[in-house]
Amino acid sequence: MGAGFAGFHAARRLRRLAKDRAEIILVNPTDYFLYVPLLPEVATGIIEPRRITVSLAETLPGVRLVLGEVDGLNLDTRTVRYAEPTGARGELSYDRLVIAAGSVNKLLPVPGIAEHAHGFRGIPEAIFLRDHLTEQLELADATDDQSARDALCTFVVVGAGYTGTEVAAHAVLYTELLRKRHPRLRDQRIRWMLLDVADRVLPELDERLSRTADKVLRERGVDVRMGVSIEEAVEDGVRLTDKSFVPTQSLIWCVGVRPDPVVDGLGLKTDKGRLVVDEYLQVPGHPEVFACGDAAAVPDLTRPGEVTPMTAQHAQRQGKQAADNIAASFGTGILQPYRHEDLGLVVDLGGTQAAANPLHVPLAGLPAKVVTRGYHLLSMPGNRVRTATDWFFDAVLPRQTTQLGVIPADQVPLETASPEGVGGV
Questions:
Q1: Backbone angles phi, psi at 99, to 5 degrees
Q2: What is the pLDDT of residues 292-324, one digit of tens each?
Q3: Rg (Cα) of the chain, in Å, rounded?
Q4: Is the whole model's pTM more than 0.90, yes or no?
Q5: d(C-alpha 422, C-alpha 424), whole Å
Q6: Which of 165, 154, 232 lies closest to 188, judged by CA?
Q7: What residues pair up with 343 in beta bridges, in sequence order?
Q8: Which DSSP symbol is given to 184?
Q9: Any idea what DSSP says for residue 87?
Q10: Residue pair 422/316 in contact by the 8 Å Cβ criterion
Q11: Rounded to an integer, what distance in angstroms lies between the CA atom of residue 99 and that of residue 189?
Q12: Which segments of the chain have a pLDDT < 50?
């Protein structure tokens, strides 16, 4: 169930271990694996969208792909029900099941958010954001109304975690590039705001990475406000929790993720929305059912009493471990508990800036950038040469900034039900 980091790597490892001795079926809404960490670069025109969409048919030969979303599970009959994109319904039986449903946007009870905000979880949202940023500055260039121009040139990002920080860092450079291409906006201030109720940027990461990211953002003119969030979103702006009102047409929701709601309907025990599993990634009482990634509350054996965080690094390795343990359940190998020490994290801040701590060695600036891009190339299961080529062209050629206009705003409402992976690396 699912072809995010956990599901994709579980299927790929199982295919290698099975050696044609088993039928492996992958149920997913799309025919590609999405490399989510590079979405901000798609949204700002650095790389093309197809670079981060890796074909499942091409990279998982021998795995049967079923396009659809799982919406039901019968543990007694060992069957999975799903809905196809056409609306047709189907059912599959299983001997072993891997639940890797991923996560969706986390919503807070804030009036107007669903109507006026846009999330950042998949290709449609990234393409829309790129077009939207471009359109806002083009509209600002066309008007002589200064108050309207100020609102068009104001962008609010809610959530200073991994995704929100990268979106703000990349996008502020993109809008500055756009401003320089519009002579009438030469003296116009492009205002970016990054809000979060936490006390620092990237609160889930090492404080040194947090300080580096905060410094880069502020040096670029981003208005970083910690301890502040949105109280209400309306058509012409947002009211903040400090009671100030910010006129804007751009509200980008990056508050975080929660497990896919399908998990709640499976009739299994959950912990804060994540399926409870043991250290072998098996669902208690149902040894034939495994769960991993964002959908699973996997015990963190390196931090007793806690569960592993919702990151791509853990999801990928849990997927592989689930595959190994499924093979062990058929007599190939030995059942092993999941244990993984973080190898470090990387945060791309656009331009030549990044923050990284490979093997917990703190890096900033160009060295961190090299490590970050190297990490992404090694982690991507395909399209590496094409991605590297896009990076090269972006470094030596002017960036293309035309808007395609192929995805209207009403086609990308704040998504809450269709996950395409995880956000952290």
A1: -95, 110
A2: 999 999 999 999 999 999 989 999 999 999 999
A3: 22
A4: yes
A5: 6
A6: 154
A7: none
A8: G
A9: S
A10: no
A11: 48
A12: 417-425
Tokens of 11: 């299927």
Tokens coding 19: 């050696």
Question: Is the four-CA dihedral 395, 400, 401, 406 of positive or negative sign?
Answer: negative
Rounded Cα distance between 287 and 289, Å, is 5
pLDDT at 260: 83
Alpha carbon of 152 to those of 138, 195, 234: distances in Å? 9, 18, 15
- Report the pLDDT value the prediction gives residue 140, as an integer from 0 to 100: 97
- How high is the pLDDT of residue 261? 82
182's CB contacts (< 8 A; 6+ apart) are 137, 138, 140, 141
The CA distance from 420 to 171, in Å, is 22
Residue 10's contacts (CB-CB under 8 Å, 6 or more residues apart) are: 98, 100, 292, 319, 320, 322, 323
Q: Which contiguous run of DSSP H or E holds residue 251?
A: strand 251-253
What whole-number distance in Å separates Cα of residue 16 and Cα of residue 333? 13
Residue 312 CA from chain centroid, whole number:
9
